[in-house]
Amino acid sequence: MDKLLICGGRPLQGEVSISGAKNAALPILCAALLTAEPLVLDNVPALRDVDTMLTLLQRLGVQAQREGSQVHLQADALTGHEAPYELVKTMRASILVLGPLLARTGQARVSLPGGCAIGQRPVDQHIRGLQAMGAQVRIEHGYVVAHAGRLQGADIVTDMVTVTGTENLLMAATLAEGRTVIENAACEPEITDLARLLIAMGARIEGHGTDRIVVQGVAQLHGARHRIVADRIETGTFLCAVAATGGDITLRDAAPETLGAVLDKLRDAGLEITTGPDWIRARMRGRPRATGFRTSEYPGFPTDMQAQLMALDTLAEGTAVITENIFENRYMHVQELCRLGAEIEIDGHTAVVTGVAELLGATVMATDLRASASLVIAGLAARGQTTIERIYHLDRGYQCMEHKLQALGADIRRLS
């Protein structure tokens, strides 16, 4: 099993390019199920989760071919309607085939999802929304089993803000008969990116990027070409890294407009940030300032950046109070950060981080995707050598992270 070996203490300098967003690519890949015509996607990141999704789509009969960062998809001859446990267990986003598969073929059988063990992410909102659109849905032997004729437009109010639920219902609604209104919809930039693709395919959608999305169903969708939006979480991770180590970096092919809350908090921490249409320059001089925050749905501070900013706070001057409001089990990285010398106390959903003058290298273990990134940041800043085990989590969401950090001057390498 691969691990990362980091010799910390080096400031980061130089330029790297940001990859396409994993959280946009996964639902967008599933949108291929909605049409028989070709779909061409650019800026698709080379990630384990993307590979898993492509394998799942091929299992369903989708033709999929990757050429560098471009993926060609065509679902003109679907041969199955089941997403099996052996694929779904590694990635919760596999549930995203449910809506488009049901809308296109009238049936779907999708295993209840797995993925990072960071808390409960129930699929009941997906099911209730599809039932409101006329589908018959049941849970059977660990699978969501759904049948429908043509789905019917409906007014759907979700009990909670759910990103994948919004994406599933949005895709299903594009082929439903009549108008669908999704209230309490998630507003994340990745949903807006999905909507842009669907509109390019002929869907009639209004309100994406707000908490009320209106979809007028059409009889069929056609092919399109689309470029995946830049990954705001990868961007934020590199910004936390330079804030923790010091230095001066420029991130190319970025989307600064998607990072409002993250950039605000990093500026509060002392990071000097300038932005352009598709680039971000960040300079750090001196020790960071402690910066507390509360995670919340977009446009609030993203839960996917909580661990990374916590890693920065471990080295900051002062004490930061962090509240995790999205997932109930997303502090598993705390114990590993403490192995490096961090001082963190947990009380329910709240973490109190007292900054220390330095971290010391040690062997640590990654427990989930974003926890992995926090350990990389801490290892880059720590004195001495840090070994991070179980980095397969990291490969699910970061494309060639160690190579990009090497390009910025970090002493980091992968051991097999």
Give your account of this protein's structure.
This protein is an alpha/beta fold. Helix content is 31%, strand content 26%. The chain has 14 helices and 24 strands. The strands form six sheets. The protein has a four-stranded mixed β-sheet. Strand 18, helix 10 and strand 19 form a beta-alpha-beta unit. Helix 1 packs parallel to helix 2 and helix 1 packs parallel to helix 7. The protein starts with a strand and ends with a strand.
Q: Beta-strand percentage?
A: 25-35%
Counting helices, strands and paired strands, the structural category is: alpha/beta
- For the termini, the CA-CA separation is 6 Å
Whole-number radius of gyration?
21 Å
Shape: elongated
Mean pLDDT across all residues, rounded?
95
Portion in helices: 25-40%
Q: Count the helices. How many?
A: 14
Number of strand segments? 24
Biggest β-sheet: strands ordered side by side in the sheet: 22-23-1-24
- Largest pleated sheet: 4 strands, mixed
Low-pLDDT residue spans: 115-121
Notable characteristics:
14 helices; single chain; 416 residues
What's a quick, concise take on this entry?
The protein is of the alpha/beta class and 416 residues long.
Secondary-structure topology with pairs:
Elements: E1 3-7, E2 12-17, H1 22-30, E3 39-42, H2 48-59, E4 63-67, E5 70-74, E6 82-83, H3 85-88, H4 98-105, E7 107-111, H5 124-132, E8 136-140, E9 143-147, E10 155-157, H6 163-174, E11 179-183, H7 189-200, E12 204-206, E13 212-216, E14 224-227, H8 232-245, E15 247-252, H9 260-268, E16 272-275, E17 279-284, E18 293-294, H10 306-313, E19 319-323, H11 333-339, E20 343-347, E21 350-354, E22 363-365, H12 369-381, E23 385-389, H13 392-397, H14 401-407, E24 411-415
Parallel strand pairs: 2-15, 3-14, 6-7, 10-11, 18-19, 22-23
Antiparallel strand pairs: 1-23, 1-24, 3-5, 4-5, 7-9, 8-9, 11-13, 12-13, 15-17, 16-17, 19-21, 20-21
Helix pairs in contact: 1-2, 1-7, 4-6, 5-6, 6-7, 8-10, 8-12, 10-12
